[in-house]
Amino acid sequence: MCGIVGYIGTQAATEVLMAGLERLEYRGYDSAGVATVSEGKVHCVRAKGKLHNLRDRVEQEQNPAQMGIGHTRWATHGKPEEHNAHPHMDLAGRVAVVQNGIIENYRQLREELQSKGHKFVSDTDTEVIPHLIAECLSVCEETSLFPSPLLEAIRQAVKQLKGAFAIAVICADYPDELIVAREQAPLVIGLGQGEFFCASDTPALVPSTRTVLKLENGELARMTPLGVEVCNQEGDRLRKAPRTLDWNPVLVEKQGFRHFMLKEIYEQPGVVRTCLEAYLNEDWHSQEAPSSSPINLNLSPALYENIEQVQILSCGTSWHASLVGKHLLEQLAGISTIVQYASEFRYAPAPITANTLTIGVTQSGETADTLAALETEKRRRTGLASQFQPQLLGITNRVESSLAQMVDYLIDTHAGIEIGVAATKTFTAQLLGFYCLALDLAARRQTLPPAQISEILDSLRQLPAQVELILEGQQSYIEELAQDFTETQDFIFVGRGINFPVALEGALKLKEISYIHAEGYPAGELKHGPIALLDAKVPVVAVAMPGIVYEKVLSNAQEAQARDSRLIGVTPVNDPEAGATFDDLLPVPAVYELLSPLLAVVPLQLLAYYIAARRGLDVDQPRNLAKSVTVE
Ligand code: F6R
Asked: Which of 126, 372, 380, 610 is most enclosed, with most CB atoms within 10 A?
């Protein structure tokens, strides 16, 4: 949440900063601002609302500055008003700071600074930082020469900050220095030819450079036109090797689609294909030696043998994918699995169990709660007997993320970066990650007969074409259907078994982007309370895929219909029973029940998308949300 950028080099800084912010706007869009240094002054421009408001302002001026910082905000402390927009400055207007994160002890620091005469003009936590740096700088300028008083002042200031944050700082008196620091929030430095960049995420850097240095927690970097020096909070210089980003520029362009979300929904067949190509061993056949696996995940052999329990930690849509994962791990691999919201686990972790694999699932790889929950798990297990040692597996599409750095094993879901704030293709890709993991474990632990594994693999291979069929066959019907719901105020989604999480996901998609109240329930729970909400104004969407609970879901749907609700069914094609039950059908190809979430979610994504689009809403940047939730 919040995106920060910085630039020092030979180009007009404002242009570079604005281009970077445009690629980070998915991280927050409540307000934006840039600050540059030239002719011994900091020049700061800020605007409330989306980035185009800031663009209108900066375009009205000629700014020759060649270094500066920028910010796009997701409000935490203080309303989304201009006076709370970053950059924030000290009273003298010499030090400017942008921050992504939360300074937890800002109240105490603010009081201390106020007692020394500092005056504050915003409601933010960030504003204490420039004041603190200015305070430290006045001392460091007297005493410190190495390597720079500004770096030294920032180092001292950062040591006093508590929380998770990344900052970029400029100072009018140091026109050749841009300083950044990182503590539990992402920050990447880009290395160009005689110019250097920094950003919260790589999309902001790639138009300029693909050579990057990733800052770790507790590190600071001083960027000058001559190069980048990195040190830790003790002031020790560190040597870090740059690496080259593997990057597909197509992922950050809309490619003719009206919104990124629609483009990403349409990317799903390709995502499924790539993921299967990456992990399926095409030479495997069901007559092979028992315990051989058709999946190449490269986990350690000891892990396969020893796991007795899995716990999955995640948030939001990734939590829904985790619920499907639990179903697969239990039903295919016979491993008892718990799924917890990462934000809950942090402060009430489940009791420590032996031989437990902990899985963190996150599309951004940067969700603060998920990272902190994994960290909690690692910390509390380290030093215990060998069967209690932490074993962490990450499932993400961002292989360069903080999650990827902290886990022992990684499943790259191959979805690439997702720009639309509502997760779509990354959900599907996380599901595939779980199918691969569960099948791998099932094969190696021999909990499923090879012939059944083979059957599931055959069905998996058909998925890309089946998703394509849904997209081709349903897009215009759903676009039309959406028209009926532009004024609807409440929706209920139901599903059972492996499709209960799909009902939750359908409801989340709809509420996130259309602002229509929507809830997902296990279909059998409807009669235990939620049915009281139903009448002709509340449509019910039921995910009813053939399998063990099919008839039950149809009966539950009929109970809703008897209360006058309009019934929409995600059902198999050409199913007379479904045809007789539902008012509206969103048919998907008939598929092995266990794989049905991968198809059933697609019409629900389209339904949410078209209802929101018909309501004229900003689908890619829904209000109050951000793509990467880097605060607690
Ligand atoms: C839903 C959505 C959020 C995220 C949640 C976790 O469309 O995008 O609910 O799923 O914030 O994010 P990640 O997966 O990045 O950990």
From this structure: 126
